[in-house]
Amino acid sequence: MKKALLYTLLFVLLTIVVFFALFFALPFLVWSDSEAAQQNNVFDSNPLLLPSLSVIVWAIITLYIFIRNQYADLSFGNIEKSDRWKMIIVGGLSIILLKTALQPLQWIMNNEIPESRYSIIQMWMDNDILMVSLLSLIHLTSEAVILSAILRELIIWSKRPIISSVVVAILFTLPGLAEFNSPAILPMLCSFLPLTLSGWIYYHTGSIWPVFFGMTAYDFMLVLTPISEYITAAVIAAVAFPWVVIYLAKRMSEKIKPITSR
Q: CB atoms < 10 A from the CB of 70, how many?
């Protein structure tokens, strides 16, 4: 429990320090009186420069600290080599289907995001390659810390993987509620359910890669799928999701030993 709390505090502290340093301190460090107008012009003409740079630097620093000190793990965990790619694909597919089924709720939420944040997200969406690349980096970093560091230590301490997954999902869902004006149940469902499923998959595989594959593949699908096809995709996903999870649970119970220690 102590390690899980320390990892959470470290993750939050790194996020605050890095983003604060880049968003507020960096512009003042690089400016001079003679260069102020030019520098202002650079940031004005490249509005995604600081947000994108912040994500990259944050991911590099966070991954380095957590991997270097063996707090987090990027291995394939308990998945047998002969079954590795099948489990990654099926586990990822369950994430894709769940997030796709929740897409209509995402619409409701996105329409109520404050304008300042929505404008940045919209600019990222106008640049598909940049958006998917940055989101992939965010997924890799977040899942490495949340699943293989925080959740793992909580499971080892409590011996209750489902409860631990729910606790971690709530912990990392609640801060996002302040950004939305919609009923709290909507962002809770859209963030809480995928996080809980991710925790369950990690418990049985000991690896973040099925979750990372699912999150990243979903982002690619979101970029490539025409808006007119979202509803159809959501309905299909809602029907297929339970069957994929049942198959995944059966395969994991037969082939993989859940994590019990580091």
A: 9
How far apart, in Å, are the Cα atoms of 187 and each of 23, 64, 120, 171, 192? 26, 31, 19, 13, 8
Token readout for 21 is 């340093």
pLDDT in tens, 168-199: 888 887 765 555 555 556 656 777 888 899 99
Confidence band for 66, pLDDT divided at 50, 70 and 90: very high
What pLDDT does residue 115 have? 47
Determine the Cα–Cα distance for residues 129 and 125; give it in Å rounded to an integer. 9
Residue 33 neighbours by CB distance under 10 Å: 6
- The helix or strand, by DSSP H or E, that contains position 55, with its residue range, turns out to be helix 49-68
What's at 38, amino acid-wise? Q
Closest CA to 165 of 204, 213, 218: 204
Count of CB atoms situated within 10 Å of the CB of 167: 18
Buried b (16+ CB within 10 A) or exposed e, 71-108: bbbbebbbbeeeebeebbebbbbbbbbbbbbbbebbee
Q: How many CB atoms lie within 10 A of CB 198?
A: 28
**Is pTM, for the whole model, over 0.85?**
no
How far, in Å, CA of 101 to CA of 220, rounded?
16
